[in-house]
Specification:
The complex is a heterodimer of chains A (259) and B (281). Chain A is mainly alpha-helical and 259 residues long. Chain A is built from 15 helices and four strands. In chain A, the strands form two sheets. In chain A, strands 1-2 form a two-stranded antiparallel sheet. Chain A has a two-stranded antiparallel ribbon with strand order 3-4. The termini of chain A are far apart. Classes of the chains: A mainly alpha (259), B alpha+beta (281). Chains A and B meet through helix 1 and helix 5 of A and strand 4, strand 5, strand 7 and strand 9 of B.
């Protein structure tokens, strides 16, 4: 099977005329979408091969998001990053082959007629980069791409599993909206540090991600972070977080320091 | 990447005076060929002490490449005065920013340099790995998508049908500018390709839309720069010796900018009408 996407005109029609079409989304009206997309010129077929991924659609998003990051990235690992930044590809998939998933993932928003979220979930409404981590399908691929660790042959998704273990939506946006997390060496260094802390019994929360990024932002003002190795980034962030959160390193174990 | 105004250590940089009578500059050329972006950098460093640090591998010349849209960010190093870099085009999209530096590869203690400004005299100076010793030129360049016909205005403007609105509307928060026309107007417009009034219809639709677009540029504070349409317009302006940033200021009004880009649309339109009148006579 080949990957299908929608033409620019179709994209702009769906985006711009959302108010006229929104009832079809609320009603999960597959028939209307099928007929609409059947019209000539609405859909284009790419030369990119595509096997339909088996997506997890259980009620608990915390569990399914993690599985679906892996499923989407596995199915579309061969996309180039340039292709993976294209709105018409992701908006297309959300309306075409993966429409069932769209309705599943937006169930509450569709019920509550949350037009703002439905729009940012289906289209790139938050700027070119941020949208990649907000769109319900693009963010699955991009989180997979950014956290995939090819150096771990046994389990290349070990960092993905950690990253997606909770707070997926907010984590994705907060963590990847930094400029330096574009560098996968830096990203992996930070994640390895956080995994290490978690293995020592510390519950990783949103603030750990925020503080790690803040720290590197400041340090990055005086040095070129991109020269560092994964281990150096891991080490620097660890030292800082231990100090900031008042943890004490005892051998390999971390303890809380009583204030 | 943001370049700071000041650093907690001396930096050889054209925009500060940490050093005297010495300089670092970089000439960077970028071209696209056969699916690759080729970058060629020449480093001109006129400072013996820093040169010595590069020769003994304590420092390197470095080119930092960043493409925010595709999350591409990478540093390329060399000890030579010339560096060639090839990056597959599919890893990049839109705006690419390149910076040049001399960077410490390891900690450097007791640093001295005869060209340092007097205020550093007697102060012990240390550089850590990754610290910046010198900053050279930076350039920005834009890759235009293959499917976008370069410098062809209609390719960045799409006209489409609005089902709810009774008035024309324009969406600029996307890679293409989209003009929404009410249903009747849209159908008339769609049939205009072979009309003897083609240019007149274009002028009636595109001119006000572009005036609207240009009126938004000055108040957007750089928020629009990431979009393809902005980058294409930016190139068109540069090639015609104007600056897109000037649109909306006293230098260039939105109204004139729209007429420049469309190459005197009113004239084309009236010439068409005149011709039509003549045939009717």
């Amino acid at each position: 099977m080949k990957l299908k996407f929608i033409s620019d005109e179709t994209l702009m029609d769906l985006r711009g005329n959302y108010d006229s079409y929104k009832e079809h989304y609320y009603n999960e009206d597959h028939e209307w979408f099928d007929n609409y997309l059947k019209e000539e010129g609405k859909v284009l077929e790419s030369n990119i091969s595509f096997e339909m991924p088996a997506l997890n659609m259980e009620a608990d998003y915390a569990a399914s998001d993690k599985e679906n990051v892996k499923a989407i990235y596995e199915a579309l690992k061969h996309l180039t990053v340039n292709q993976a930044t294209q709105e018409r590809l992701w908006a297309g998939l959300a309306h075409l082959q993966l429409r069932e998933f769209t309705f599943y993932r937006l169930k509450k928003d569709l019920e509550n007629k949350n037009d703002k979220r439905i729009n940012t979930a289906l289209f790139f409404k938050n700027g070119n980069k941020r949208s990649l981590f907000v769109h319900i399908l693009a963010r699955l691929w991009w989180v997979g791409y950014m956290t995939y660790d090819e150096s771990n042959k046994q389990d290349p998704y070990w960092l993905t599993n950690f990253f997606c273990s909770k707070d997926f939506s907010a984590r994705s946006v907060i963590f990847f909206s930094s400029n330096f997390t574009s560098n996968r060496t830096i990203t992996k260094g930070i994640l390895k540090c956080l995994v290490g802390l978690e293995e020592n019994g510390i519950e990783i929360k949103r603030d750990h991600f925020v503080q790690a990024n803040k720290y590197l932002n400041i340090v990055g003002g005086a040095m070129i972070l991109d020269m560092l190795t994964e281990e150096e980034v891991e080490d620097m962030v660890k030292k800082y977080l231990l100090k900031y959160f008042g943890y004490q390193l005892d051998g390999d174990k971390v303890h809380f320091v009583n204030h | 990447m943001k370049i700071n105004v000041s650093y907690p250590y001396p930096v050889l940089y054209m925009n500060n005076d940490d050093y005297k009578q010495t300089s670092f500059s970089t000439k960077i050329d970028v071209k696209e060929e056969f699916g690759e972006v080729k970058i060629e950098a020449h480093f001109y460093l006129d400072n013996l002490e820093i040169k010595r640090l590069i020769e003994n591998r304590s420092c390197v010349y470095l080119i930092h490449v960043e493409c925010s849209q595709t999350s591409y960010r990478k540093a390329f190093e060399t000890h030579q005065e010339r560096l060639e870099i090839s990056i597959p085009t599919y890893q990049l999209r839109g705006k690419i920013v390149l910076h040049s530096f001399v960077i410490a590869k390891e900690a450097i203690h007791n640093y001295t340099n005869e060209y340092l400004n007097d205020w550093y005299k007697g102060i012990p100076l240390t550089f850590e790995k990754g610290n910046i010793l010198a900053i050279g030129e930076a350039i920005e360049t834009t890759l235009i998508d293959d499917h976008t016909e370069f410098l062809n205005l209609p390719s960045i403007v799409t006209v489409t049908k609005s089902l709810k609105n009774d008035y024309m509307d324009v969406d600029i928060h996307s890679n293409n500018i989209t003009i929404y026309l009410p249903e009747y107007e849209y159908h008339q417009y769609a049939m205009s390709a072979h009309s003897p009034l083609k240019n007149t219809i274009l002028a009636a639709v595109i001119v006000p839309a572009l005036v609207y677009v240009f009126s938004k540029i000055s108040e957007a504070n750089g928020d629009l720069e990431e979009y393809t349409w902005y980058q294409v317009l930016d190139k068109i302006f540069q090639e015609n010796n104007y600056r897109l940033e000037d649109v909306g200021t006293d230098v260039l009004s939105p109204l004139k900018a729209a007429q420049l880009v469309l190459r005197k649309p009113l004239k084309a339109s009236f010439e068409e009408i005149e011709k039509l009148h003549r045939t009717e006579d």
